[in-house]
Write a structure and sequence with these properties.
By secondary structure, the chain is of the alpha+beta class. 33% of the residues lie in helices and 23% in strands.
Length: 253
């Protein structure tokens, strides 16, 4: 059966600006802030592309003449979602070294020694209960100096998330401040400073933008290297085997 499109779709014409080696409509998507990923074969002569836009991974389908693109979900005659496996594969693909370098250059608080053989980056909101749970469940690796978790502080969940994150970053000893915040999380954690350095607030805002640019929509989101050295992203709170994979091995005894 012939496939059909079902979604609130976006159509762009060839008159839009064209990026190098891309059909003109995809160039127009780039102009609107989208990042165009890998191409893939699609039914009926369509050419598919993965697209990252405002923290979401989408599928885009260019028509055979290259003059139009449809962004949305492709269904076959049985109602099978043909786009979802493509999107899932794109979201689970290895990340680029540029992502790792961007994280390294962000505003983060170290949890664990600089000499730890393994480094993990985690987007952390000070009001996020799952971030707090991640902090608690990783003590065995951190306290035995096996892993350093670099908490990239963001402020996205509540009105006081940004000032709390900025307060922690601006502390005389950010690592100790983070530990105290986590120890008192159930009672609200850190109290935002009355006068926050503008630089600390700007750092949190920059981290917020980085989070969106990397396609991260929730906290915690954890970047790590797998056994082959490839950069991976674990979305949400890692549990069980996923936690061991993120931390590089079984829980220390």
């Amino acid at each position: 059966m012939r496939p059909r499109f079902l979604c609130a779709a976006l159509f762009l014409l060839a008159g839009s600006a064209q990026a190098q080696d891309l059909p003109a409509p995809l160039g127009a998507l780039e102009d609107r802030g989208a990042t165009i990923g890998e191409s893939f074969d699609a039914p009926d002569g369509l050419t598919g592309y993965t697209v990252s836009f405002q923290g979401q991974t989408l599928a885009a389908y260019v028509t055979t003449d290259g003059d139009h693109v449809v962004v949305g979900t492709l269904l076959d005659g049985d109602g099978t979602n043909l786009s979802q496996p493509i999107i899932e594969a794109a979201e689970n693909a290895a990340r680029s070294e540029d992502d790792w370098e961007a994280l390294a250059g962000s505003g983060w608080i170290p949890d664990g020694p600089d000499t730890a053989p393994r480094v993990v980056y985690a987007f952390t909101d000070p009001n996020c209960p799952f971030c707090h749970r991640f902090y608690e469940t990783t003590r065995d690796w951190v306290d035995t100096d096996q892993v350093q978790i670099r908490h990239v502080m963001v402020g996205v969940l509540r009105e006081d998330s940004l000032p709390k994150a900025a307060t922690l970053l601006a502390a005389e000893d950010p690592s100790a401040a983070l530990a105290e915040h986590e120890a008192n999380f159930d009672n609200g954690g850190v109290r935002p400073a009355d006068r926050l350095p503008a630089g600390a607030q700007q750092t949190v805002q920059t981290n917020n933008r980085l989070m969106a640019e990397l396609g991260v929509r929730g906290t915690p989101s954890v970047f790590y290297r797998d056994a082959d050295g490839d950069i991976r992203l674990e979305r949400g709170l890692p549990r069980g085997e996923a936690l061991e994979t993120v931390m590089g091995g079984p829980r220390p005894e």
